[in-house]
Amino acid sequence: MDIGALLTSAGINIAICVVLLSLYSILRKQPSNVSVYFTRRFVSEPVKRSDPFCLERFVPSASWIMRAWQATDEEILAVGGVDAVVFMRIVVFSIRIFSIAAMICIFLVLPVNYYGQEMQHKRIHAESLEVFTIGNVKEGSKWLWTHCLALYVISCSACVLLYFEYKSITKMRLAHITGSPPNPSHFTVLVRGIPWSPDHSYSDAVEKFFSTYYPASYVSHQMVYRAGTVEKLMKDAEKMYRMLKTVEPHGKQGSMPCCLCGGTTHSFKMLSHEAESVKGKTSVDELQSTQREKERPAAFVFFRTRYAAVVAAQVLQSPNPMLWVTQLAPEPHDVYWSNLSIPYKQVWLRKIATLLGAIVFMFMFLVPVTFVQGLTQLDQLSHTFPFLKGILKEKLMNQLVTGYLPSVILILFLYAVPPTMMLFSTMEGNVSRSERKRSTCIKVLYFTIWNVFFVNVLSGSIIRQLSVFSSVRDIPTQLAKAVPTQATFFTTYVLSSGWASLSCEVIQLFALLCNAFRKFILRSKEEPSNCTLTFPHHTEIPRLLLFGLLGFTCSVMAPLILPFVLVYFFLAFLVYRNQILHVYVSKYECGGQFWPIVHNTTIFSLVLTQIIALGVFGIKQSPVASGFTIPLIFFTLLFNEYCRQRFSPVFKSSPAQVSIRNLSI
Amino acid sequence: MDIGALLTSAGINIAICVVLLSLYSILRKQPSNVSVYFTRRFVSEPVKRSDPFCLERFVPSASWIMRAWQATDEEILAVGGVDAVVFMRIVVFSIRIFSIAAMICIFLVLPVNYYGQEMQHKRIHAESLEVFTIGNVKEGSKWLWTHCLALYVISCSACVLLYFEYKSITKMRLAHITGSPPNPSHFTVLVRGIPWSPDHSYSDAVEKFFSTYYPASYVSHQMVYRAGTVEKLMKDAEKMYRMLKTVEPHGKQGSMPCCLCGGTTHSFKMLSHEAESVKGKTSVDELQSTQREKERPAAFVFFRTRYAAVVAAQVLQSPNPMLWVTQLAPEPHDVYWSNLSIPYKQVWLRKIATLLGAIVFMFMFLVPVTFVQGLTQLDQLSHTFPFLKGILKEKLMNQLVTGYLPSVILILFLYAVPPTMMLFSTMEGNVSRSERKRSTCIKVLYFTIWNVFFVNVLSGSIIRQLSVFSSVRDIPTQLAKAVPTQATFFTTYVLSSGWASLSCEVIQLFALLCNAFRKFILRSKEEPSNCTLTFPHHTEIPRLLLFGLLGFTCSVMAPLILPFVLVYFFLAFLVYRNQILHVYVSKYECGGQFWPIVHNTTIFSLVLTQIIALGVFGIKQSPVASGFTIPLIFFTLLFNEYCRQRFSPVFKSSPAQVSIRNLSI
């Protein structure tokens, strides 16, 4: 691939982005799309304003960009909670570090690469991209210290930035714990693994246990009940009722006859009330005997003070660690009710099973990725399918296939991943939605890094022989050989997948189509009230981190990727701010618990970059540069360990000092 | 090596053992050795009984064996505490599992190995030991299912036994927590990382913090003070005084003039009192200003109830996890005072540094081990040193060098290891002796397993090419090739190192020589009162576990090792019981916290055995046996995970239920 092809690819992508963003700026002005693009405002005041028809509505404008740019961090915090701010911090951190990296790499490393070998340079746009990578530097070159210096600058500034980010996010988390308005969940502990005894019910056991061991602070408790078949039917009915209600509004009769629920709306409503009571809102008196049978070995226990709840959640309760397992209760919106009744004894087994399932899924995914990889190596492809030879000889076609098609295919396949991983995390037995999301986030992250980065890097020639798994010591060398040559693919990946995904994110294609379908096919006048979305951390954080990883690993090796990564993050900054401000509604939050994942992944990216650099310096026979890289790896790991000691315990359990100081009643 | 050589080696070792044990049975009857062999009784009533001189004193007897055999577990518990019982459980577990292994391997596997190949069998005592290993089985043999079956039986029974041991030891630990007599340390929490402020002293900070956050349960606290130069001098003087006191007893003047402390004994005593006061026994009033300067950021905090102490120790105190770090205080005898003043901020760094130090030490040790390994390969040796050829041609010499010398050299080198590791663990910053011992135990264990097992297995031909580190996938195959051939060495190692170490343990050579030196050279009449030993868990547990590992890994491959391992454990049963009953004094204990180490190591041994078997089955081209081994590995790991979930939390922190039920005042 040469500069020309890269520019073609960039051109296509810029065009697509501009078109989509303009389209967005028009679509958002249409009153019919308020429920799609202003969900947040729409939920709080679902009044339909019919603006007068005017030309302005059909002219693209950049006002939303200004709005997103001007929003302050406080505004984001107020609107999206700590998690939204943490998400924006990832973007800001990436912009900062890649600005530094771009400065040093483009002005120092790129010239060294370009003039690395005594060769006849072609005209710039016909120059192969390889000329700009470290592969062009002579073996034993004395200029490799520039790469080593760049590596040092990037690593050190990344560590410094990471430290301050971690510090400020820890502070934000603590402020969130102390500052958030008093909430029943702060005083509540979720108990699982209540031991069964034939003499008394689970409820009696909880009562007895906590009034014995926490006599001063125990207030009461609420058992979790099993949802039987009838409850499930009622739930389905309730769901259907709600769905129908959106089509046929409660007040008006007519416009579209509904034979299923004509006149029975009231009975549906009663049922739905009853269904809610199953989740613990009515008194336990009625249906005493059956309810006892329906009790599950899990309960919410309420304490007098917040501190007592924190203590009860952190202390090991029973000599059998599988019984009386306590944790702070999630917020009411955050509870994932159907997992509460999973016996705690199963949880560890479920975790292992889903882990294995996720790993198998990861490796199964090799098939499409290997196919995609094949597309970038056109010679082989036209060798295998001779009929393609004619098509591939055309220049534009060639550029399109090498520069664009692989990424598109990969993206389409990747869309199936988050729902699968979410399913795994549900089966894992997480009791809260935020926990499930975090678990999904980690799974998707591993998946993305493995399948986009490693498989692409290693599949070139190695995975076919399956010898990569047998050599540990050669990994740096193998990576060092593979990464610079794969830099082209990664650059196009950032271009296509990165930029396009942001355009898709802002335009909310799926919600838009649904809305259009409802408006123009079902001809519903009433706006739907329950289709709010929470921010999809589990897909967006891995995506940001993947581009961070690509940026880091290619920075010193193939600096040409950096401008594209930077543009991606700038665009991400605007798009995600806009989305947080207008689209997503945060029903629950986990108080910044995503940051440790981000921190660890960034450290991983840094160390991987350093290991690859070590391999490259080895290949280029520069013992000095290699010698300087080894302590850098060591100090990066040491820094990570320090942060783990200094900050991460606060993200696992809330400190007593904080919970006592502000919120003991 | 053939059966004859093995029997020679066994003969030598049996002879040595019998001689040493007989010598022991004589020596222990001498009244002058009471302080060596009956330290426990001697400490409680240091009266010198002069038995009448009779012939019986010089006749070897087996009465101590009977005594050790008849002692009950309750007696051991009363005398040595939980740790001693846990230690004996390791021996009992090993005896049980290796009895089962010996039964199945000798009656089922051994004949299959012996008749594995159609060959002319020599007379039994000239038969090479290789004939009895799995190496003698034909490739693709249909009899390999016996090995697979034996592996299944051994793994399953080991898991079942491990489960019940873990269960009973957990119960014992809980009984120890609730049942031990009330002790100030139960109500005490050790706080480290007290933040420094210019306004008030550390003591004020502690006072303020705990009376704010634990107003109901906080009683008082005691700061830790820095030992200055003067204190250190005083300490040395105190030590010297004690040493001199043993030579020149307090009551009698004369017999040996001591110009250093004639008449100053009293002042020494006074000083020693003052030295103790530094560790916190006098009131803080005197020397107020200097003491404030000497305060270290660590303190013991006393609580009203045991439960409050448990809570304060388990809950995260401060938003900065490096400050106000709490843990349950160790028992007074257990506290390692000089490490208390290490700033908590350093601890994580010290841990990493000592870990790296220990790893470097482990690899430095390769040098002597490689030399030892060379001795078992005589051809190479006589090739390198031609002058040895003459000596080595003699048969006895040959047998001695191959069968005995390597082990002896290895043992001598290994004696230097525990003190080094203890030094590392001291530098690590452990605040209690038991914690330090546990940390040393783990280090010595890794060291032993690496240097005795892996290096010997892998050094044969592989380590020289250093290619072993580069191949992950081939490890099972490499191990499978190496272990059966190294079985001979391991058998002789069990014979020489194992049996001899037990004889040395029972005879307490060092203490005996010291005693003789004091009695006959210094001519001291007074018995020393402060030379009691605590049980050296950190050397003995790794030794037992190493022999367990050798037994497991060789069991299916080379079953001939099993009788020797069994004899070792039987002997260990008698010797260690005797030592616990008579010699060692337990000043402090850690309540069975060694067991998780033992459990994990045994699981590691099992999985290693299974991996090696997998490799062997692969080499022998038996897909069925390999196929059955893989689920076995998986289920063993699953079992381990279950035990980790079910039992290990109790070994990390004490459960609230237990600490409330019995000992809240």
From TrEMBL, chains A, B:
Where the record annotates domain CSC1/OSCA1-like cytosolic, the positions are: 186-339
Respond yes or no to whether keyword Ion transport is given for this record: yes
Keywords per UniProt:
Calcium, Ion channel, Ion transport, Membrane, Transmembrane, Transmembrane helix, Transport
Location comes to: Membrane
GO MF terms here are:
calcium-activated cation channel activity
Q: Where is the CSC1/OSCA1-like N-terminal transmembrane domain?
A: 5-165
Q: Its membrane topology, per UniProt?
A: Multi-pass membrane protein
**Classification via InterPro entries:** Csc1-like, CSC1/OSCA1-like_7TM, CSC1/OSCA1-like_cyt, CSC1/OSCA1-like_N
**Primary place of residence?**
membrane
Offer a single GO CC term for the protein: membrane
Q: Which domain of life is it from?
A: Eukaryota
Domain CSC1/OSCA1-like 7TM region as annotated: residue spans: 350-617
UniProt protein name: Lipases,hydrolases, acting on ester bonds isoform 2
User: From which source organism is this entry?
Assistant: Theobroma cacao (Cacao)
